Amino acid sequence: MALKGDLSNFSTAQLLNLISLARKTGTLSIDGEDMARMSFREGKLIYATLGSDSENSLAHILQRGGKLSQQQTKAIEKRAAGTGDKQLGHLLIQAGYVTQSDIIQSMRKHILDVAYKIFTWAEGLFRFEANKLPPPDRITIPIDLDSVILEGSRRLKEWEHLQDELPSLDICLKFPDQPSTRLNKINLTVEEWKVISFIDPKNNMRQIAKANNLNDFQIRRIVYSLLQAGLVEIASQPRAVKKPPPTRSQKARAEREAQKSPDVKRTIVNRLIDRIRRI
């Protein structure tokens, strides 16, 4: 029997903590802002997908990781249609496109990006199916869940702050007329330099993110740091930009959390642990 529920009752952090404590093997599916799946073996995260199959193919994962160009990705997908990820990875290594380390690093980053994205979801239906694992042709990377939960929870708090500061990705940016800091005296990351190269009052944050393969969290974090350093400033932003009001499920969750005592919360979690262990 599969375990089912709603993220308005149990957060992603709670679900992952339960799976880790019970050392479960199986797949957690979440139908929220998109369709996501995370697979586990003995309490460790080993695989994750978000969105369509094409977005989770090895070639696209390597492209997002900067290991393949867009042209290379299209050519590889055309020639290797129907090839499993493991076989494709072996062929790419033999052809000199990537190394084994490139594949491991890109897959690990992809899995973690999916997991951290789900932490920001306040709504969604989840379903845990015991002993269900990815197809054998997929590349799996074991990742300790304790570190995922800690980093995901930290990112959730940062995400909420960034949404308050930069509520819309339609904001356009420009360089200050009288910059207080010189770029040659600032140590910027590769990603920050890439964003800097696209700064123009005609380009909004959404366009800059797409051009650099950055997700919503990454572009907000980089732009916020550039704003704080005085390297860029807001050129224009949509009218009446404000944080959307909380949904009914978010309000209900907040009310339930406020009403529950620690003992009640502990009892609910313990019951859910027992259910997962029985699956």
Summary keywords:
279 residues, globular
Describe this structure in words.
The protein is an alpha+beta fold and 279 residues long. It has 11 helices and 7 strands. The chain has helices at residues 12-21, 58-64, 70-79, 85-95, 100-119, 145-165, 190-196, 205-211, 216-228, 248-259, 262-278, and strands at 3-6, 26-31, 35-41, 44-50, 125-130, 172-174, 233-236. The strands form 2 sheets. A 5-stranded antiparallel beta sheet has the order 1-5-2-3-4. A two-stranded antiparallel sheet has the order 6-7. A hairpin with a 3-residue loop joins strand 2 and strand 3. Helix 1 (12-21) packs across helix 11. The longest helix has 21 residues, at 145-165. It is globular, with a radius of gyration of 21 Å. The N and C termini lie close together (6 Å).
